[in-house]
């Protein structure tokens, strides 16, 4: 059993969250169970899932199979936007907790604001209830623009602990990260490698390959180090044991100012997913 490898970030509610964890999007239950167990046995301590991923059962099985004590594992799941609303969110949470086979989750997030449905404030009120009950230790959001977060705070007075968004060298989200930082919200990156596209030679891969050769690391490790060094939490997805090990092996080198400048030049503003205002 490998000791925890990722540093911890302190959330604005006092909880501590590993900066780098495992994502399991588009992974079936059996595959998720294997990946989660392997990751936890090899130094990971955070697993990120969602009701929409349909693999919460596998994630819970992986946590149990890993042998790592439950209190040492940070488990995040999310309510899908079609379940936004107060009562429907509480029902969805109960279903997620039952599927995971856990007594609580460490973080529960609103997966999308779905602004045209206009139910995300009621969803947030449900999350505050779950936090008060202790069944969700921390609460946050995913894919929220600053205007969506501001509305939650204005109407409830409760600041999210985490904002999980698409973020990678093409889309570094400078304004959103500055907004989150003002409120002590941790910005967490999904699709940290732009679904692998940023590694392609025509889209930054040649730059990353050069930096990888300089530091004795893979191009993916260069990008993940950029996230970590920028203070971003990050959840790379993999089900391959070698890649799972590789993705967390990013804490033994530092990118210098020239490296960071080369990475900054990759910014295009391009998304691999939809804009949050368009998800309804």
TrEMBL record:
InterPro entries, per this entry? AKR, Aldo/ket_reductase_CS, NAD(P)_OxRdtase_dom_sf, NADP_OxRdtase_dom
Entry's SUPFAM superfamilies?
NAD(P)-linked oxidoreductase (SSF51430)
Annotated active site: 53
The organism sits in which domain of life?
A: Bacteria
Recorded protein name is Aldo/keto reductase
The Swiss-Prot or TrEMBL record describes its family as follows:
Belongs to the aldo/keto reductase family.
Q: Where is this site: Lowers pKa of active site Tyr?
A: 78
Q: Could you list the residue ranges forming a coiled coil in this record?
A: none
Q: Which residues bind substrate?
A: 111
GO molecular function terms attached to this record:
oxidoreductase activity, acting on the CH-OH group of donors, NAD or NADP as acceptor
**Domain spans labelled NADP-dependent oxidoreductase:** 20-266
Please give the organism: Herbiconiux sp. A18JL235
Keyword Flavoprotein in annotation: no
Q: Which UniProt keywords apply?
A: NADP, Oxidoreductase
């Amino acid at each position: 059993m490998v000791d925890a490898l990722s540093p911890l970030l302190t959330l604005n509610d006092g909880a501590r969250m590993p900066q780098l964890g495992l994502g399991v999007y588009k992974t079936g239950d059996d595959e998720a169970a294997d990946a989660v167990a392997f990751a936890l046995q090899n130094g990971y301590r955070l697993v990120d899932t969602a009701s929409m991923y349909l693999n919460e059962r596998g994630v819970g099985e992986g946590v149990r199979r890993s042998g790592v004590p439950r209190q040492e594992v940070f488990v995040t799941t999310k309510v899908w936007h079609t379940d936004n609303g107060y009562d429907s969110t509480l029902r969805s949470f109960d279903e997620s907790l039952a599927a995971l086979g856990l007594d609580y989750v460490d973080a529960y997030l609103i997966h999308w604001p779905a602004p045209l449905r206009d139910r995300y404030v009621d969803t947030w009120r449900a999350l505050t209830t779950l936090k008060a009950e202790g069944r969700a230790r921390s609460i946050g959001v995913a894919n929220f623009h600053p205007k969506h977060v501001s509305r939650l705070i204005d109407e409830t007075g409760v600041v999210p602990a985490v904002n999980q968004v698409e973020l990678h060298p093409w889309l570094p989200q400078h304004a959103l990260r500055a907004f989150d930082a003002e409120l002590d919200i941790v910005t967490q990156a999904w699709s940290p490698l732009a679904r692998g596209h940023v590694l392609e030679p025509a889209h930054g891969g040649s730059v990353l390959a050069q930096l990888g050769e300089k530091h004795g690391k893979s191009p993916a490790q260069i990008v993940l180090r950029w996230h970590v060094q920028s203070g971003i939490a990050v959840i790379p997805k993999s089900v391959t044991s070698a890649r799972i090990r590789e993705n967390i092996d990013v804490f033994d080198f530092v990118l210098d100012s020239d490296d960071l400048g080369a990475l900054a030049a990759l910014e295009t503003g391009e998304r691999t997913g939809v804009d949050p205002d368009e998800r309804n």
